[in-house]
Input
Amino acid sequence: MKPALFAAPPAASADPGAARPAPAPAGPLAAPIAFVVKTGAITAMEIRKLQHDPFDLVTRAVQPVLWLTVFGQVFGRLRALPAGLGPYLDFLAPGVLAQSVIYIAIFQGIAVIWERDQGTLQKFLVSPTPRAALVLGKGLAAGVRGTTQAVTIFVLALIMGVNVRWDPLALLGILGLVLLGGNFFATLSLVIAALVRSRERVQGMGQLITMPLFFASNALYPIALMPGWVAVLAHCNPLSYMVDGLRTLMVVSGTSTLGLPLDFGVLLLANAAIVALAAYLYPNVVR
Amino acid sequence: MLDLTDHTPLVRTEGLTRTFGAFTAVDGVDLEIAAGEVFALLGPNGAGKTTTIKMLITLLPPSAGRATVGGYDVVRQASAVRRLLGYVPQALSADGMLNGYENLLVFARLYDVPWREQRARVEQALAFMGLQDAAGRLVRTYSGGMVRRLEIAQALIHYPRILFLDEPTIGLDPVARRAVWEHLARLRREFGATLFLTTHYMEEAEHLATRVAVMSQGQIVALGTPAALKAQVPGGAATMEDVFVYFTGDTLESGGSYRETRALRRTARRLG
Output
Protein backbone atom coordinates (compact mmCIF):
# COMPACT_ATOMS: atom_id res chain seq x y z
CA MET A 1 0.00 0.00 0.00
CA LYS A 2 1.30 3.40 -0.97
CA PRO A 3 2.04 5.50 2.09
CA ALA A 4 -0.80 7.96 2.53
CA LEU A 5 -1.59 10.54 5.14
CA PHE A 6 -4.81 11.75 3.74
CA ALA A 7 -8.01 10.00 2.87
CA ALA A 8 -8.35 10.06 -0.88
CA PRO A 9 -11.21 12.13 -2.25
CA PRO A 10 -14.37 10.05 -2.73
CA ALA A 11 -13.85 9.62 -6.49
CA ALA A 12 -10.59 7.75 -5.96
CA SER A 13 -11.68 5.74 -2.96
CA ALA A 14 -13.05 2.89 -5.09
CA ASP A 15 -9.43 1.73 -5.01
CA PRO A 16 -9.39 -0.72 -2.08
CA GLY A 17 -5.85 0.29 -1.12
CA ALA A 18 -6.77 3.94 -0.77
CA ALA A 19 -6.42 5.48 2.65
CA ARG A 20 -9.60 6.36 4.45
CA PRO A 21 -10.50 7.46 7.95
CA ALA A 22 -10.57 4.56 10.38
CA PRO A 23 -14.19 3.41 10.46
CA ALA A 24 -16.11 3.27 13.69
CA PRO A 25 -15.44 -0.18 15.17
CA ALA A 26 -18.42 -2.49 14.72
CA GLY A 27 -19.91 -5.25 16.86
CA PRO A 28 -21.89 -5.40 20.10
CA LEU A 29 -18.82 -5.08 22.33
CA ALA A 30 -17.11 -2.44 20.21
CA ALA A 31 -18.46 0.55 22.11
CA PRO A 32 -17.56 -0.64 25.62
CA ILE A 33 -14.12 -1.80 24.44
CA ALA A 34 -13.46 1.52 22.73
CA PHE A 35 -14.57 3.29 25.92
CA VAL A 36 -12.08 1.36 28.04
CA VAL A 37 -9.26 1.74 25.49
CA LYS A 38 -9.78 5.50 25.19
CA THR A 39 -10.11 6.04 28.92
CA GLY A 40 -6.85 4.12 29.26
CA ALA A 41 -5.21 6.23 26.55
CA ILE A 42 -6.02 9.43 28.46
CA THR A 43 -4.86 8.00 31.79
CA ALA A 44 -1.66 6.64 30.23
CA MET A 45 -0.93 10.04 28.70
CA GLU A 46 -1.32 11.76 32.08
CA ILE A 47 0.94 9.18 33.73
CA ARG A 48 3.59 9.80 31.06
CA LYS A 49 3.50 13.51 31.90
CA LEU A 50 4.00 12.62 35.54
CA GLN A 51 7.01 10.48 34.68
CA HIS A 52 8.56 13.32 32.70
CA ASP A 53 8.12 15.79 35.55
CA PRO A 54 7.44 14.32 39.01
CA PHE A 55 8.43 17.52 40.87
CA ASP A 56 4.82 18.48 41.53
CA LEU A 57 4.29 15.28 43.49
CA VAL A 58 7.13 16.14 45.85
CA THR A 59 5.80 19.61 46.69
CA ARG A 60 2.30 18.26 47.15
CA ALA A 61 3.52 15.71 49.67
CA VAL A 62 4.81 18.37 52.09
CA GLN A 63 1.46 19.44 53.48
CA PRO A 64 0.11 16.00 54.45
CA VAL A 65 3.47 15.13 55.96
CA LEU A 66 3.15 18.22 58.22
CA TRP A 67 -0.37 17.22 59.25
CA LEU A 68 0.84 13.84 60.32
CA THR A 69 4.13 14.83 61.97
CA VAL A 70 3.17 18.13 63.65
CA PHE A 71 -0.61 18.20 64.04
CA GLY A 72 -0.87 14.47 64.71
CA GLN A 73 1.90 14.40 67.32
CA VAL A 74 0.60 17.43 69.23
CA PHE A 75 -3.07 16.48 69.15
CA GLY A 76 -2.20 12.95 70.14
CA ARG A 77 -1.27 14.34 73.59
CA LEU A 78 -4.72 15.88 74.16
CA ARG A 79 -6.34 12.45 74.55
CA ALA A 80 -9.74 13.78 73.53
CA LEU A 81 -10.69 10.66 71.62
CA PRO A 82 -13.28 8.33 73.11
CA ALA A 83 -11.76 5.12 74.41
CA GLY A 84 -11.51 2.20 72.02
CA LEU A 85 -10.37 4.17 68.99
CA GLY A 86 -6.69 3.48 69.62
CA PRO A 87 -3.83 6.02 69.49
CA TYR A 88 -4.71 9.33 67.80
CA LEU A 89 -1.95 8.98 65.23
CA ASP A 90 -3.49 5.66 64.14
CA PHE A 91 -6.85 7.38 63.90
CA LEU A 92 -5.46 10.37 61.98
CA ALA A 93 -3.22 8.57 59.43
CA PRO A 94 -6.07 7.37 57.15
CA GLY A 95 -7.64 10.85 57.33
CA VAL A 96 -4.41 12.52 56.25
CA LEU A 97 -4.02 9.95 53.49
CA ALA A 98 -7.47 10.83 52.18
CA GLN A 99 -6.70 14.53 52.50
CA SER A 100 -3.51 14.20 50.45
CA VAL A 101 -5.49 12.49 47.70
CA ILE A 102 -8.07 15.29 47.70
CA TYR A 103 -5.48 18.06 47.64
CA ILE A 104 -3.92 16.63 44.52
CA ALA A 105 -7.29 16.09 42.82
CA ILE A 106 -9.28 19.20 43.71
CA PHE A 107 -7.29 21.53 41.43
CA GLN A 108 -7.60 19.32 38.35
CA GLY A 109 -10.01 21.89 36.94
CA ILE A 110 -7.20 24.44 36.70
CA ALA A 111 -5.30 22.13 34.38
CA VAL A 112 -8.42 21.76 32.25
CA ILE A 113 -8.81 25.55 31.90
CA TRP A 114 -5.15 25.72 30.97
CA GLU A 115 -5.71 23.05 28.32
CA ARG A 116 -8.67 25.01 27.01
CA ASP A 117 -6.53 28.14 26.64
CA GLN A 118 -3.88 26.09 24.85
CA GLY A 119 -6.34 24.47 22.46
CA THR A 120 -5.45 20.98 23.67
CA LEU A 121 -8.90 20.37 25.10
CA GLN A 122 -10.53 21.36 21.81
CA LYS A 123 -8.55 18.69 19.98
CA PHE A 124 -9.66 16.00 22.41
CA LEU A 125 -13.28 17.11 22.11
CA VAL A 126 -13.05 17.03 18.31
CA SER A 127 -11.84 13.42 18.34
CA PRO A 128 -14.44 10.63 18.27
CA THR A 129 -14.04 9.98 21.99
CA PRO A 130 -16.99 9.67 24.38
CA ARG A 131 -16.97 12.65 26.75
CA ALA A 132 -17.27 10.32 29.71
CA ALA A 133 -14.03 8.59 28.62
CA LEU A 134 -12.21 11.94 28.49
CA VAL A 135 -13.50 12.81 31.96
CA LEU A 136 -12.89 9.41 33.52
CA GLY A 137 -9.40 9.13 32.00
CA LYS A 138 -8.38 12.38 33.66
CA GLY A 139 -10.06 11.50 36.94
CA LEU A 140 -8.35 8.13 37.15
CA ALA A 141 -5.03 9.83 36.44
CA ALA A 142 -5.70 12.03 39.47
CA GLY A 143 -6.33 8.80 41.37
CA VAL A 144 -2.95 7.49 40.23
CA ARG A 145 -1.29 10.72 41.37
CA GLY A 146 -3.13 10.26 44.65
CA THR A 147 -1.72 6.74 44.91
CA THR A 148 1.82 8.11 44.95
CA GLN A 149 0.76 10.37 47.83
CA ALA A 150 -0.86 7.46 49.57
CA VAL A 151 2.35 5.45 49.38
CA THR A 152 4.27 8.37 50.94
CA ILE A 153 1.79 8.69 53.79
CA PHE A 154 1.67 4.94 54.28
CA VAL A 155 5.45 4.69 54.60
CA LEU A 156 5.58 7.70 56.91
CA ALA A 157 2.85 6.25 59.12
CA LEU A 158 4.84 3.04 59.30
CA ILE A 159 7.97 4.93 60.36
CA MET A 160 6.01 6.85 63.00
CA GLY A 161 4.84 3.63 64.57
CA VAL A 162 1.26 3.44 63.37
CA ASN A 163 -0.05 -0.11 63.62
CA VAL A 164 -0.56 -0.71 59.93
CA ARG A 165 -2.42 -3.74 58.67
CA TRP A 166 -0.50 -5.97 56.28
CA ASP A 167 -3.10 -7.79 54.30
CA PRO A 168 -2.91 -7.92 50.49
CA LEU A 169 -6.68 -7.70 50.21
CA ALA A 170 -6.79 -4.68 52.50
CA LEU A 171 -4.04 -2.98 50.49
CA LEU A 172 -6.00 -3.63 47.32
CA GLY A 173 -9.05 -2.10 49.00
CA ILE A 174 -7.02 0.98 49.94
CA LEU A 175 -5.89 1.32 46.32
CA GLY A 176 -9.51 1.13 45.20
CA LEU A 177 -10.59 3.78 47.70
CA VAL A 178 -7.75 6.10 46.66
CA LEU A 179 -8.71 5.74 42.98
CA LEU A 180 -12.40 6.31 43.76
CA GLY A 181 -11.64 9.32 45.97
CA GLY A 182 -9.15 10.82 43.51
CA ASN A 183 -11.52 10.38 40.61
CA PHE A 184 -14.46 11.85 42.51
CA PHE A 185 -12.75 15.03 43.65
CA ALA A 186 -10.87 15.57 40.37
CA THR A 187 -14.14 15.23 38.47
CA LEU A 188 -15.88 17.55 40.96
CA SER A 189 -13.16 20.10 40.15
CA LEU A 190 -13.84 19.54 36.47
CA VAL A 191 -17.52 20.24 36.99
CA ILE A 192 -16.58 23.48 38.74
CA ALA A 193 -14.28 24.36 35.82
CA ALA A 194 -17.09 23.79 33.34
CA LEU A 195 -19.34 26.09 35.35
CA VAL A 196 -17.02 28.98 36.27
CA ARG A 197 -14.68 28.69 33.25
CA SER A 198 -11.75 30.72 34.56
CA ARG A 199 -8.57 29.59 36.22
CA GLU A 200 -8.76 32.05 39.11
CA ARG A 201 -12.31 31.07 39.96
CA VAL A 202 -11.55 27.34 39.83
CA GLN A 203 -8.67 27.97 42.22
CA GLY A 204 -10.88 30.06 44.51
CA MET A 205 -13.66 27.49 44.51
CA GLY A 206 -11.17 24.71 45.19
CA GLN A 207 -9.83 26.54 48.22
CA LEU A 208 -13.33 27.44 49.34
CA ILE A 209 -14.57 23.84 49.46
CA THR A 210 -11.44 22.00 50.60
CA MET A 211 -11.52 23.05 54.26
CA PRO A 212 -15.29 22.56 54.77
CA LEU A 213 -14.99 19.16 53.08
CA PHE A 214 -12.19 18.24 55.40
CA PHE A 215 -13.75 19.59 58.62
CA ALA A 216 -17.22 18.21 57.90
CA SER A 217 -15.80 14.70 57.67
CA ASN A 218 -14.43 12.06 59.97
CA ALA A 219 -10.83 12.70 58.82
CA LEU A 220 -9.63 14.52 61.96
CA TYR A 221 -12.17 13.39 64.57
CA PRO A 222 -14.95 10.83 64.78
CA ILE A 223 -18.45 11.78 63.69
CA ALA A 224 -19.65 10.87 67.19
CA LEU A 225 -17.89 13.94 68.62
CA MET A 226 -19.52 16.39 66.16
CA PRO A 227 -22.44 18.74 66.88
CA GLY A 228 -25.61 17.39 65.29
CA TRP A 229 -25.69 19.59 62.20
CA VAL A 230 -22.03 18.89 61.34
CA ALA A 231 -22.69 15.18 61.77
CA VAL A 232 -25.48 15.43 59.20
CA LEU A 233 -23.12 17.18 56.77
CA ALA A 234 -20.45 14.59 57.42
CA HIS A 235 -22.87 11.84 56.47
CA CYS A 236 -23.50 13.57 53.12
CA ASN A 237 -19.78 14.01 52.46
CA PRO A 238 -18.19 11.35 50.19
CA LEU A 239 -14.91 12.03 51.97
CA SER A 240 -16.35 10.51 55.17
CA TYR A 241 -16.99 7.22 53.38
CA MET A 242 -13.52 7.24 51.88
CA VAL A 243 -11.91 7.88 55.28
CA ASP A 244 -14.11 5.30 57.00
CA GLY A 245 -13.07 2.69 54.46
CA LEU A 246 -9.41 3.64 54.68
CA ARG A 247 -9.50 3.55 58.48
CA THR A 248 -11.00 0.06 58.43
CA LEU A 249 -8.47 -1.30 55.95
CA MET A 250 -5.31 0.57 56.88
CA VAL A 251 -4.85 0.44 60.65
CA VAL A 252 -5.21 -2.44 63.07
CA SER A 253 -7.28 -0.42 65.55
CA GLY A 254 -9.49 1.01 62.82
CA THR A 255 -13.14 0.13 63.17
CA SER A 256 -15.71 1.04 60.60
CA THR A 257 -18.62 3.14 61.86
CA LEU A 258 -20.42 3.12 58.50
CA GLY A 259 -19.58 -0.36 57.19
CA LEU A 260 -17.32 -1.22 54.25
CA PRO A 261 -20.13 -2.15 51.84
CA LEU A 262 -21.75 1.24 52.43
CA ASP A 263 -18.37 2.99 52.01
CA PHE A 264 -17.73 1.41 48.62
CA GLY A 265 -21.37 1.63 47.57
CA VAL A 266 -21.67 5.35 48.27
CA LEU A 267 -18.34 6.10 46.59
CA LEU A 268 -19.20 4.10 43.48
CA LEU A 269 -22.56 5.83 43.14
CA ALA A 270 -21.07 9.26 43.77
CA ASN A 271 -18.41 8.57 41.11
CA ALA A 272 -20.95 7.43 38.54
CA ALA A 273 -23.07 10.52 39.15
CA ILE A 274 -20.21 13.02 39.02
CA VAL A 275 -18.68 11.47 35.87
CA ALA A 276 -22.06 11.61 34.12
CA LEU A 277 -22.54 15.25 35.15
CA ALA A 278 -19.01 16.22 34.10
CA ALA A 279 -19.36 14.45 30.74
CA TYR A 280 -22.53 16.45 30.13
CA LEU A 281 -20.93 19.77 31.10
CA TYR A 282 -17.46 19.18 29.60
CA PRO A 283 -18.08 20.74 26.16
CA ASN A 284 -19.11 23.95 27.97
CA VAL A 285 -15.49 24.60 28.85
CA VAL A 286 -14.65 25.43 25.23
CA ARG A 287 -17.81 27.32 24.28
CA MET B 1 -18.50 2.41 -10.74
CA LEU B 2 -20.93 5.27 -10.67
CA ASP B 3 -19.79 7.75 -8.10
CA LEU B 4 -22.12 10.63 -7.40
CA THR B 5 -20.43 11.65 -4.18
CA ASP B 6 -17.76 13.37 -6.23
CA HIS B 7 -20.16 16.22 -6.87
CA THR B 8 -21.31 16.54 -3.29
CA PRO B 9 -19.47 19.33 -1.55
CA LEU B 10 -17.29 18.12 1.30
CA VAL B 11 -18.44 21.05 3.41
CA ARG B 12 -21.78 22.77 2.98
CA THR B 13 -23.35 25.42 5.19
CA GLU B 14 -26.78 26.96 4.82
CA GLY B 15 -27.56 30.13 6.73
CA LEU B 16 -25.06 29.13 9.41
CA THR B 17 -25.50 31.50 12.34
CA ARG B 18 -24.16 31.74 15.86
CA THR B 19 -25.13 34.30 18.44
CA PHE B 20 -23.70 34.94 21.89
CA GLY B 21 -26.41 36.82 23.77
CA ALA B 22 -27.20 39.90 21.70
CA PHE B 23 -24.00 39.59 19.68
CA THR B 24 -24.11 37.81 16.32
CA ALA B 25 -20.67 36.29 15.72
CA VAL B 26 -21.57 34.42 12.53
CA ASP B 27 -24.46 35.72 10.49
CA GLY B 28 -26.10 33.51 7.84
CA VAL B 29 -23.03 32.01 6.18
CA ASP B 30 -23.57 29.91 3.02
CA LEU B 31 -20.53 27.99 1.80
CA GLU B 32 -19.75 25.00 -0.39
CA ILE B 33 -16.31 23.47 -0.44
CA ALA B 34 -15.40 20.66 -2.82
CA ALA B 35 -12.90 17.89 -2.20
CA GLY B 36 -9.38 18.94 -3.15
CA GLU B 37 -9.87 22.65 -2.52
CA VAL B 38 -7.72 24.80 -0.29
CA PHE B 39 -10.25 27.18 1.12
CA ALA B 40 -9.16 30.23 3.10
CA LEU B 41 -11.43 32.24 5.34
CA LEU B 42 -9.88 35.69 5.49
CA GLY B 43 -10.88 38.45 7.84
CA PRO B 44 -9.87 40.75 10.68
CA ASN B 45 -9.87 39.56 14.31
CA GLY B 46 -13.40 39.17 15.55
CA ALA B 47 -14.88 38.65 12.08
CA GLY B 48 -16.27 35.24 13.08
CA LYS B 49 -13.69 32.96 11.45
CA THR B 50 -12.91 30.90 14.53
CA THR B 51 -16.59 30.65 15.47
CA THR B 52 -17.33 29.33 11.97
CA ILE B 53 -14.63 26.66 12.29
CA LYS B 54 -15.84 25.71 15.78
CA MET B 55 -19.30 25.01 14.39
CA LEU B 56 -17.95 22.97 11.47
CA ILE B 57 -15.79 20.79 13.73
CA THR B 58 -18.70 20.10 16.17
CA LEU B 59 -17.34 22.15 19.09
CA LEU B 60 -20.14 24.69 19.03
CA PRO B 61 -23.76 24.09 18.00
CA PRO B 62 -25.12 26.64 15.51
CA SER B 63 -27.85 29.00 16.74
CA ALA B 64 -29.54 28.77 13.33
CA GLY B 65 -28.93 27.25 9.93
CA ARG B 66 -27.10 24.00 9.32
CA ALA B 67 -23.78 22.59 8.22
CA THR B 68 -22.62 19.24 6.85
CA VAL B 69 -19.14 17.78 6.53
CA GLY B 70 -18.80 14.81 4.21
CA GLY B 71 -22.59 14.75 4.02
CA TYR B 72 -23.01 14.34 7.80
CA ASP B 73 -24.82 16.92 9.88
CA VAL B 74 -22.46 18.57 12.39
CA VAL B 75 -25.07 18.47 15.16
CA ARG B 76 -27.04 15.26 14.64
CA GLN B 77 -24.16 13.16 13.27
CA ALA B 78 -21.32 14.77 15.19
CA SER B 79 -19.44 11.58 15.82
CA ALA B 80 -19.36 10.66 12.09
CA VAL B 81 -18.13 14.18 11.31
CA ARG B 82 -15.38 13.89 13.93
CA ARG B 83 -13.93 10.81 12.21
CA LEU B 84 -13.55 12.69 8.93
CA LEU B 85 -11.74 15.77 10.04
CA GLY B 86 -8.39 16.80 11.42
CA TYR B 87 -8.12 20.02 13.42
CA VAL B 88 -5.18 22.29 14.15
CA PRO B 89 -6.25 24.97 16.67
CA GLN B 90 -4.98 28.51 16.73
CA ALA B 91 -3.11 28.27 20.02
CA LEU B 92 -0.09 26.04 20.49
CA SER B 93 -1.88 22.91 21.48
CA ALA B 94 0.70 20.11 21.51
CA ASP B 95 1.48 19.01 25.04
CA GLY B 96 4.85 20.38 26.13
CA MET B 97 5.11 17.81 28.92
CA LEU B 98 5.06 14.90 26.46
CA ASN B 99 7.52 14.06 23.71
CA GLY B 100 6.60 14.19 20.04
CA TYR B 101 5.92 10.47 19.76
CA GLU B 102 3.61 10.43 22.79
CA ASN B 103 1.71 13.44 21.50
CA LEU B 104 0.81 11.47 18.38
CA LEU B 105 0.26 8.10 20.01
CA VAL B 106 -2.59 9.31 22.22
CA PHE B 107 -4.48 10.58 19.18
CA ALA B 108 -3.85 7.35 17.26
CA ARG B 109 -5.65 5.58 20.12
CA LEU B 110 -8.49 8.08 20.38
CA TYR B 111 -9.11 7.81 16.62
CA ASP B 112 -9.44 4.00 16.71
CA VAL B 113 -6.27 3.36 14.72
CA PRO B 114 -5.80 -0.43 15.03
CA TRP B 115 -3.34 -1.41 17.74
CA ARG B 116 -0.80 -2.98 15.35
CA GLU B 117 -0.77 0.03 13.01
CA GLN B 118 -0.31 2.72 15.64
CA ARG B 119 3.47 2.73 15.73
CA ALA B 120 3.87 2.78 11.94
CA ARG B 121 1.31 5.56 11.56
CA VAL B 122 2.94 7.74 14.18
CA GLU B 123 6.34 7.28 12.54
CA GLN B 124 4.93 7.98 9.10
CA ALA B 125 3.29 11.22 10.21
CA LEU B 126 6.44 12.34 12.04
CA ALA B 127 8.57 11.57 8.99
CA PHE B 128 6.27 13.46 6.67
CA MET B 129 6.46 16.56 8.85
CA GLY B 130 10.26 16.20 9.18
CA LEU B 131 10.18 15.52 12.91
CA GLN B 132 11.49 11.95 13.21
CA ASP B 133 14.74 13.12 14.82
CA ALA B 134 12.90 15.11 17.46
CA ALA B 135 10.34 12.40 18.27
CA GLY B 136 11.91 11.49 21.61
CA ARG B 137 12.34 15.06 22.85
CA LEU B 138 9.88 16.82 25.13
CA VAL B 139 7.79 19.19 23.05
CA ARG B 140 8.52 22.14 25.35
CA THR B 141 12.05 22.11 23.87
CA TYR B 142 10.69 22.45 20.30
CA SER B 143 10.73 25.68 18.31
CA GLY B 144 7.41 27.27 17.40
CA GLY B 145 7.60 25.97 13.84
CA MET B 146 8.31 22.44 15.02
CA VAL B 147 5.33 22.53 17.39
CA ARG B 148 3.12 23.65 14.54
CA ARG B 149 4.34 20.83 12.29
CA LEU B 150 3.83 18.34 15.13
CA GLU B 151 0.26 19.55 15.48
CA ILE B 152 -0.36 19.04 11.79
CA ALA B 153 1.05 15.52 12.17
CA GLN B 154 -1.37 14.96 15.08
CA ALA B 155 -4.26 16.02 12.89
CA LEU B 156 -3.20 13.57 10.13
CA ILE B 157 -2.89 10.45 12.25
CA HIS B 158 -6.30 9.06 11.27
CA TYR B 159 -6.10 9.92 7.54
CA PRO B 160 -8.75 12.67 7.61
CA ARG B 161 -10.79 13.74 4.61
CA ILE B 162 -10.42 17.40 5.45
CA LEU B 163 -8.03 19.37 7.61
CA PHE B 164 -9.21 22.48 9.48
CA LEU B 165 -6.44 24.90 10.40
CA ASP B 166 -7.18 27.98 12.49
CA GLU B 167 -4.50 30.61 11.82
CA PRO B 168 -1.85 27.97 11.06
CA THR B 169 1.15 30.29 10.98
CA ILE B 170 0.23 32.93 13.53
CA GLY B 171 3.28 34.16 15.42
CA LEU B 172 5.76 32.12 13.34
CA ASP B 173 8.87 33.73 11.93
CA PRO B 174 9.08 33.89 8.12
CA VAL B 175 11.30 30.82 7.80
CA ALA B 176 9.06 28.65 9.98
CA ARG B 177 6.02 30.01 8.17
CA ARG B 178 7.45 28.95 4.80
CA ALA B 179 8.20 25.48 6.16
CA VAL B 180 4.58 25.08 7.29
CA TRP B 181 3.32 26.32 3.92
CA GLU B 182 5.55 23.88 2.08
CA HIS B 183 4.25 20.97 4.12
CA LEU B 184 0.67 21.98 3.51
CA ALA B 185 1.36 22.36 -0.21
CA ARG B 186 2.94 18.89 -0.26
CA LEU B 187 -0.12 17.44 1.46
CA ARG B 188 -2.20 18.82 -1.34
CA ARG B 189 0.16 17.80 -4.13
CA GLU B 190 0.80 14.26 -2.97
CA PHE B 191 -2.50 13.33 -1.38
CA GLY B 192 -5.02 15.73 -2.86
CA ALA B 193 -5.72 16.99 0.63
CA THR B 194 -8.67 19.28 1.26
CA LEU B 195 -7.75 22.16 3.55
CA PHE B 196 -9.95 24.72 5.28
CA LEU B 197 -7.96 27.47 6.91
CA THR B 198 -8.56 30.81 8.53
CA THR B 199 -5.98 33.51 8.35
CA HIS B 200 -5.54 37.22 8.52
CA TYR B 201 -2.32 37.11 6.57
CA MET B 202 -3.02 38.07 2.95
CA GLU B 203 0.22 36.46 1.85
CA GLU B 204 -0.89 33.16 3.32
CA ALA B 205 -4.23 33.18 1.54
CA GLU B 206 -2.57 34.10 -1.73
CA HIS B 207 0.16 31.52 -1.35
CA LEU B 208 -1.98 28.54 -0.37
CA ALA B 209 -5.60 29.03 -1.24
CA THR B 210 -7.45 27.99 -4.37
CA ARG B 211 -10.47 29.94 -3.13
CA VAL B 212 -10.86 32.73 -0.61
CA ALA B 213 -13.87 33.99 1.34
CA VAL B 214 -13.51 37.41 2.93
CA MET B 215 -15.39 37.58 6.22
CA SER B 216 -16.40 40.75 8.02
CA GLN B 217 -18.69 41.12 11.04
CA GLY B 218 -19.95 37.58 10.76
CA GLN B 219 -20.79 37.66 7.06
CA ILE B 220 -19.09 36.52 3.88
CA VAL B 221 -18.56 39.75 1.97
CA ALA B 222 -16.59 38.34 -0.98
CA LEU B 223 -15.88 34.89 -2.37
CA GLY B 224 -13.70 33.69 -5.22
CA THR B 225 -10.21 32.79 -6.39
CA PRO B 226 -7.51 35.23 -5.30
CA ALA B 227 -7.27 36.51 -8.90
CA ALA B 228 -11.04 36.98 -9.22
CA LEU B 229 -11.20 38.90 -5.97
CA LYS B 230 -8.43 41.22 -7.07
CA ALA B 231 -10.30 41.91 -10.29
CA GLN B 232 -13.39 42.96 -8.32
CA VAL B 233 -11.66 45.94 -6.71
CA PRO B 234 -12.41 49.11 -8.75
CA GLY B 235 -9.30 50.43 -10.42
CA GLY B 236 -7.66 47.02 -9.88
CA ALA B 237 -5.92 45.65 -6.81
CA ALA B 238 -2.22 45.02 -6.73
CA THR B 239 -2.28 42.74 -3.71
CA MET B 240 -4.65 40.73 -1.55
CA GLU B 241 -4.13 43.44 1.04
CA ASP B 242 -6.04 45.86 -1.19
CA VAL B 243 -8.79 43.28 -1.57
CA PHE B 244 -8.96 42.87 2.18
CA VAL B 245 -9.22 46.59 2.91
CA TYR B 246 -11.74 47.09 0.11
CA PHE B 247 -14.10 44.38 1.33
CA THR B 248 -13.77 44.70 5.10
CA GLY B 249 -13.74 48.51 5.31
CA ASP B 250 -11.86 50.19 8.12
CA THR B 251 -10.15 47.29 9.86
CA LEU B 252 -9.12 49.49 12.79
CA GLU B 253 -12.74 49.64 13.90
CA SER B 254 -13.23 45.89 14.16
CA GLY B 255 -10.35 45.02 16.43
CA GLY B 256 -11.62 41.75 17.92
CA SER B 257 -12.62 40.96 21.46
CA TYR B 258 -10.38 41.46 24.45
CA ARG B 259 -10.25 37.75 25.13
CA GLU B 260 -9.42 36.86 21.54
CA THR B 261 -6.65 39.42 21.34
CA ARG B 262 -5.25 38.22 24.63
CA ALA B 263 -5.24 34.63 23.39
CA LEU B 264 -3.53 35.65 20.15
CA ARG B 265 -0.83 37.55 21.99
CA ARG B 266 -0.25 34.64 24.31
CA THR B 267 0.16 32.31 21.34
CA ALA B 268 2.51 34.72 19.64
CA ARG B 269 4.58 35.04 22.81
CA ARG B 270 4.89 31.29 23.30
CA LEU B 271 5.91 30.86 19.68
CA GLY B 272 8.39 33.72 19.70
Q: What stands out?
A: Residues 135 and 279 of chain A are 6 Å apart (CA to CA).
